[in-house]
Known about the structure:
Blueprint: H1 3-48, E1 62-63, E2 66-70, H2 75-78, E3 84-89, E4 93-103, H3 110-120, E5 127-133, E6 138-145, E7 148-149, E8 157-162, E9 167-173, E10 176-181, E11 186-187, H4 191-200, E12 209-222, E13 226-239, E14 242-249, E15 255-256, H5 260-263
Antiparallel strand pairs: 1-11, 2-10, 2-13, 3-4, 4-9, 5-6, 6-7, 6-8, 8-9, 12-13, 13-14, 14-15
Protein name: Two-component system regulatory protein YycI
Pfam families: YycI (PF09648)
Organism: Siminovitchia sediminis
Amino acid sequence: MDWGKLKTIFIIAFLILDIYLLTQLLNKQEVNKLEVKADVSLEENLNNDGIDYSGLPNDQVKDQYMSANTKSFSEKEVENLKDQSVTIVDDSIIYSELRHPILVEEDFDIQEIEQLVKSSVLYGEQYVFGHYDEEAGTITFYQKYKDKILFKNRSAHIVFYMDNDRKIESYEQTMLETFEPISEKEEVLPAIRAVKAVYRNRLLQPDSDIVQAELGYYTVVNMEATQVLTPTWHIVAEHNGEQESMLVNAFEGQVIEGNSEEDKTVMME
């Protein structure tokens, strides 16, 4: 064996490898520079459009994908619900008609409905206010997991239905259970990246204020009995007294398309 030739071949191979790795590093640095420039440009555009995002959280947060199962309700669970006529549909939906409808004033305090949820709905303490749709006559609450809301999840909500006289006459309830992590924790994108994503998609009007940036979960895989949830930023922008809700995948930075009418309903605190 000609060790001299073999040594030369190894030297050339390592040299080619070094050149390749150096090229990759330079390309990555260039991409990073472009991303930084793009971020600076976006921030300038946000400022030029009068969009106030000064109240955004800037903590570094780690989170993970979760799985959860659809809860099956039992007759025993609902038998103690008072002053209601309760029906369980497909084991997973509670439909209840109130024997004494509750009047909702036009300037009602959401805390009154929160008290109704806690006192008259199963596991009511696990739900928080989501949105109020005056035109549809609905008030929606979403389930939370460890203080994080399951945004716009039809399998984890309570919807109150009002009649034409603004009286709550019925509600439906769904719920998830058995939450389990299915990935390692990793850093989520900061809230400012979520704001830039909605701005890039032309979802922010000039002279808007970002009044809320909250991290929760949104369903990315929905099977009959199980869901996969991803960390998601909930961004609320206010313009001319009206608030608009938007969701952004906190790992990938993609804006999540939703029901535009629901997104534009007035959010209440």
